[in-house]
Structures are given as structure tokens and as C-alpha cells.
Amino acid sequence: MGAAPPERTVLSGRPVMPGATRAESDGPVARKRYFYVSFWAVTGSHDARERLLAAAERLLMRTGPRSVSMDTAAAAAGAGKMSAYRHFASRDDLVAAALERHHPRHLQWLVGHGGDAGAGPSAAAGRPADPGPAGPASGAPATGDPEGPVAGDPATPASGDPAGRILAAFDRLESAAGREPYRGCPFVDAALGAPGTRDRAGAIAWQHKQEVTRALAGLAAQAGLAEPDELGAAVALVIDGAAVQAALAPDPARRQQIVRRGRRVAQALLSSAARS
Fold first, then answer.
1. How far is residue 113's CA from residue 271's CA, in Å, rounded to a whole number?
2. What does each C-alpha distance from 265 to 10, 89, 138, 161, 271 come to in angstroms?
3. What is the 3-state secondary structure (H, E, C) of 141-166?
């Protein structure tokens, strides 16, 4: 067996050889000998950011945006508070990143694969959308989260029934409203709690709502309904109204009743568009 490598330290993800200057440590020999140190530093950093994001997303879905802080996300992720500040400039930046992470999953859950998800809020923010891994680690299924697929959620209707897929959004919303906790739409929740109208969370929430509307309009067009863009916007308005009002109701039964009422309104809109 060869001799153990000398002790080394890492500054900003780069190895520094003992007793050497930064320039010496940056030489080709040092880079070759200690490359694995830098590799693991970068890998660990990426893993910490993902764990912080997943933790913030879970907090956001379960207990609302006010529960998300650098301290709570770091504790839930098993990371240090300083690690949170290395990856996110502020608590608002962390909340916004969690919303971006949740956007594609929420859009798929609400309108299924049939809607065009478009570029996503993160495109406007100049970064790729990260749907995150499916499963409890990302805070979606089988954990009682108010939004997200769980066992027993209504299935998405077949692709040959676009009108049915519009109404299925209400069926999934009704299922979510019957679980605890239920806070309505997480994007509305976060945007209303943002410090200003031009806050990044508010911009992401608005873009998310625009994409929901476009997805519904696309399904309306597939169904051959009149004025699909206007119809998609109207149904999106009914979905938001049902979700917000249900969040105010004192018990699951009344929450679900409100969502069913919204479904009937949407059904009337679809029937009217079909006759036009």
C-alpha cells in the first residue's frame, strides 16, 4: 500500500497543498493529485442545495410560506445555517427557488400531461426549472401535503377527453381539500405573503397562473370549444376562487363542497362553449 496523501484544505471548493501558495497549489501537478478533493466539494455543495430546496418546498406546502426560513430549512435538510446562506442570498430567495421547484409538479398535478407547460416561471428568472424527484423526499406523495399526487387522487382522464381533463382539475382539488393540512394554492399563499408587489415570489406565482390558464385553454381548443383562450381564463378563475374560498372553510366537508360548487360552474361554462 502507498503512503497516505498529505493533509489538505479546501478553499472555495479548490484544494490547497500544505505549505504552498495559492499559485503553487493551482499548478498542474496539484490539480491532478487533488482533483478528487475538488470534485467531492462540488458534489456535496450541489447535494446540500437540493436538500435545502426540498426541505423548503415541504415547509411551503405543509405549513405555508411564513414557516420557511433559513433556520427551519437548514434544520429540516440536516444542513448548517451557513450552508443555506451560501446557496441562497436571503429567505425570500429560498422561498422563490422552492416555488420554482414546485411549479412543474403542481402544473402536472392540476392539469395533467395534456396542458402545455410552456417555458415555466424559471425561464423568466433565467434558470432551468427543476421538477425534483418524485416521492416523499421531494414532499409530494403520501405525506398529507395539500397539493400533489397521493394514493386515491382521481386519475387523469384519457387524452381523447380534453373537456374531461379540465373538469378533473376540480376532482383533484376536491381530493386535496379533504386532507389536512389544506392551505389552498401555495403560489397564491406565497405571493400574498411577499413583502412587495414586485417581489420575485409574486412574479413566479403570476407566471404559474398564466401557464395554468394556457394549459386549460389548450385543452379547451383540443375539445373544439368556442373561444378557448377566454374559456381557459374563466375556468382558471373558478379554480382559484374555489381554492381560496375552500382554504377559509373550517372543515374538510365544507371545503370539498365549495370545490364541487366550482366544478358545477366550470361544467356550465364548458356546456355553454360547446353550444356556441
1. 23
2. 61, 43, 34, 19, 10
3. CCCCCCCCCCCCCCCCCCCCCHHHHH
Q: Which of 159, 160, 140 is nearest to 150 (CA)?
A: 140
* pLDDT digit string, tens, across residues 107-147: 999 998 534 434 445 433 333 333 332 333 333 333 233 44
Residues 90-113 have pLDDT tens digits of 888 999 999 999 999 999 999 985
3.40.50.970, 1.10.357.10, 3.40.710.10, 3.40.50.10320: CATH of 90-275? 1.10.357.10
pTM: 0.69
105 within 8 A of 210, measured Cβ to Cβ: no
- Which residue, chain included where needed, has cell 366544478? 263
Place of cell 401535503: 145
Residue 7 to residue 160: CA distance in whole angstroms: 64
Among the listed residues 155, 158, 189, the one whose alpha carbon sits nearest the alpha carbon of residue 175: 155
Domain map of the chain by residue range?
A: 90-275
Query: CA-to-CA distance for 144 and 211, rounded, in angstroms?
Result: 25
